[in-house]
């Protein structure tokens, strides 16, 4: 890394009072300068293959409105995907949704390990640290993970009709009330483990930091054409604040009331 490179992660509101921790695995499309955009034009990195558009702004807004700490990954999922297990082929993709990634082609074991040590582990170590603090402060903190999905994949041109999806595996203590709160909004197509399933799809963060610890946890997937603009992100941050508060109350988790 060089001084102009962004940090490996961003920590927001570390002293937040809510019994909630927000995480954002795909918050950035940045690549270290020395890796020359992995051989891709900037427009490709700004596609969904490089990050989850809208999620950083929404996570920032929720961290403030809920008064909760948040950890956001600092680099593109194409550099290394922080929401994958270390043994998964998609941890470092040679191709994503039809786009070859030259800088990931045939990397050797040393480069793979360097990326794990430099970018993957520090992010997850920081989530571990923040969750440990939250567990000391609160009996049962909640882990909330923010993602977004593209309405259609180039490699699989099927429309995805959902405005938002709730992703979970075995523990529905947050998923069930969140699904209800989102449906009660009245104007949304809500997916239950759609377009990705917590039971079958790749994804490690809510399992490692939430489910495996027995903590409340849930992941939301937001349709990118709803959240990629400043106005859309602000609208969805307000929706999620409202729905998360209902969800947390149903689970017996008290969140500070926002100041007038």
Radius of gyration: 18 Å
User: Approximately how much beta-strand content do the residues carry?
Assistant: 15-25%
Strand line-up of the largest beta sheet = 1-3-2-6-9-7-8
Quickly count the helices. Answer: 7
Shape: globular
Poorly predicted regions: none
State mean pLDDT (0 to 100 scale): 94
Main sheet characteristics: 7 strands, mixed
The percent of residues in helical segments reads: 25-40%
Order of helices and strands: EEHHEEEHEEHEHEHH
Question: Structural class, judged by helices and strands?
Answer: alpha/beta
**Separation, N- and C-terminal Cα atoms:** 43 Å
Number of strands: 9
Features:
alpha/beta; 260 residues; 7-stranded mixed beta sheet; 9 strands; 7 helices; two-stranded antiparallel sheet
Describe this structure in words.
There is one protein chain. The longest helix has 29 residues, at 109-137. This protein has helices at residues 42-45, 55-66, 109-137, 175-184, 205-209, 224-227, 230-250, and strands at residues 9-12, 20-24, 70-73, 95-96, 99-100, 142-149, 164-167, 190-192, 216-223. It is globular. The chain has 260 residues and is of the alpha/beta class. The chain has a seven-stranded mixed β-sheet with strand order 1-3-2-6-9-7-8, with helices on both faces. The mean pLDDT is 94. α2 (55-66) packs across α7 (230-250) and α4 (175-184) packs across α7 (230-250).
Short description:
This protein is α/β, with parallel strands linked by helices. It has seven helices and nine strands; from the N terminus they run ββααβββαββαβαβαα. It is globular.
């Amino acid at each position: 890394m060089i001084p102009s490179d962004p940090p490996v992660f961003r920590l927001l509101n570390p002293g937040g009072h809510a019994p909630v921790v927000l995480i954002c695995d795909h918050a950035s499309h940045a690549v270290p300068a020395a890796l020359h955009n992995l051989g891709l034009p900037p427009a490709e990195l700004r596609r969904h293959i490089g990050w989850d558009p809208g999620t950083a702004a929404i996570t920032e807004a929720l961290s403030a409105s809920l008064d909760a700490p948040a950890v956001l990954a600092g680099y593109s999922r194409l550099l290394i995907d922080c929401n994958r297990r270390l043994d998964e082929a998609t941890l470092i993709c040679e191709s994503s949704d039809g786009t070859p990634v030259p800088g990931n082609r045939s990397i050797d074991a040393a480069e793979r390990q360097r990326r794990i040590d430099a970018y993957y582990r520090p992010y997850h170590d920081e989530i571990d640290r923040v969750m440990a603090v939250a567990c000391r402060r609160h009996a049962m903190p909640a882990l909330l993970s923010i993602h977004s999905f593209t309405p259609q994949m180039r490699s699989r041109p099927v429309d995805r009709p959902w405005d938002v999806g709730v992703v979970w595996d075995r523990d529905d203590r947050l998923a069930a009330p969140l699904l209800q709160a989102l449906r009660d909004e009245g104007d949304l197509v809500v997916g239950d483990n759609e377009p990705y399933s917590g039971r079958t799809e790749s994804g490690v963060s809510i399992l490692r930091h939430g489910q495996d610890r027995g903590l409340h946890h849930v992941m939301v997937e937001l349709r990118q054409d709803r959240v990629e603009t400043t106005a859309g992100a602000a609208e969805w941050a307000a929706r999620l604040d409202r729905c998360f508060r209902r969800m947390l109350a149903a689970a017996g988790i008290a969140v500070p009331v926002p100041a007038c």
